Amino acid sequence: MKKHIQRLGKIAEKQQRLIIGLMSGTSLDGLDVALCRFEGAGSHTRVEVLHFATKPYDETFRNEIRRVFAKTEIDFQHLVLLNVMVAERHGALVNECLKEWGVRPDEVDLLASHGQTVYHAPRVFHGLPQYPNATLQIGDGDHLAHCTGLITLSDFRQKHIAAGGEGAPLALYGDYFLFSKEGEHRILLNIGGIANFTWLPGDGRPDEAFATDTGPGNTLLDAFAQALFGVPFDEDARLASAGKVDLELLEALKTEPFFSKPVPKTIGPELFSPQWVKAAIAEAGKQEPAPQDLMATLSQLTAETIVESIRQTVKGTDRMPRKLYLSGGGAHNPFIVRYLKEALTDWEVLPMSALGIDGDAKEAVLFAALANETVAGENNPGARLGGIPFVGMGKISFPD
């Protein structure tokens, strides 16, 4: 094992590091794979995305994950088997990308894998005072390392919970190191299955920066697009645009206590599920809206709860420029984006690509950045970011 420790030391001292970041989100659409070149660490981090691909999952694989995804009762044996199955599938997809890109495994320093979230249970959701925040991602790091031949960092969220956080959103760390800019207030809004944003104040103070979930992003839209129309998602918001927002149902949905809880906070599809929507319809004493009207209402829910969260938590009257950068699947939804631009008139709304990073690649890049920080960052006892101590995240697995 001594050779592995020595190799890690050499990687940490390199002027440049090649790191692959992997992200598989709650949409279950596929695996994002980003090959990044890093220089420096901490506030001196510089990154260049050399290659990026999204490798789609087939429906059989998605259904295997759905059997345990966001469910309180599951077949435990199936979960254990999936922990290996997901790792092997991800490893095979990484190998496929390297071959397509003409990159040898021995040219890559590290592999950073988020894994596949199957259950996220912060206290704000489970409400059990005797139990801590918790989350579970599968896709074992040892299997990934063995399959790819790469030193692998995985299971990033556990250290954040151990240090007092909720295990999400972890975007704050990478966003702060990569995208803070003195003299410019920035919001980095990612609309994935769940919508979340990072606030980066223009004075660069780490104690003022934070990241928080706002509520549903695409998770409800995707679920009802599949259930009502037999399509995986509402492409170009055509379904929502053909409907009319049911204002009474929208207000009923917005009575959910999560929306009024203080930030930072996290949540997942465990709460924002089709069953949650149907329960709200029943409690409001309404008949289920026409399919397009329901899509319009859920799209409006995503957009309004994002805007309200930003307005309630990001304050200040200084004259610094204010820019909001969009990423995630929702950044391609014209219904949501139009509302954001109309409602946030004091913010310039821009695509993530304006910062040199493809918005679809951003989360995979951020996990590569976390691995870079764990290996090459400096320990700074007592320093805090968003109220949580600076901690190195990710368990390290060697390929042999």
Question: What's this entry about, in short?
Answer:
The protein has helices spanning 2-13, 59-66, 76-101, 123-126, 141-148, 157-162, 171-179, 219-229, 238-241, 247-253, 274-283, 291-313, 334-343, 362-376, and strands at residues 16-24, 30-39, 46-56, 110-121, 134-138, 152-154, 185-191, 194-200, 210-216, 322-327, 348-351, 384-385, 388-389, 395-397.
Give a description of the structure:
This protein is an alpha/beta fold. The protein is built from 14 helices and 14 strands. The protein has helices spanning 2-13, 59-66, 76-101, 123-126, 141-148, 157-162, 171-179, 219-229, 238-241, 247-253, 274-283, 291-313, 334-343, 362-376, and strands spanning 16-24, 30-39, 46-56, 110-121, 134-138, 152-154, 185-191, 194-200, 210-216, 322-327, 348-351, 384-385, 388-389, 395-397. Helix 7 crosses helix 14. The mean pLDDT is 93.
Features:
seven-stranded mixed beta sheet, five-stranded mixed beta sheet, single chain, globular, 38% helix, alpha/beta, 400 residues
SSE-based structural type: alpha/beta
Helix-strand topology string? HEEEHHEHEHEHHEEEHHHHHEHEHEEE
Strand content: 15-25%
Beta-strand segment tally: 14
Q: Tally the helices: what do you get? A: 14
Ranges with pLDDT <50 over ≥5 residues? Answer: none
Round the Cα radius of gyration to an integer and report it.
21 Å
Q: Report the average pLDDT across residues.
A: 93
- The helix fraction, in percent, is 25-40%
Oligomerization state: single chain
Cα-to-Cα separation, first versus last residue = 9 Å
Shape: globular
User: Major sheet, described briefly?
Assistant: 7 strands, mixed
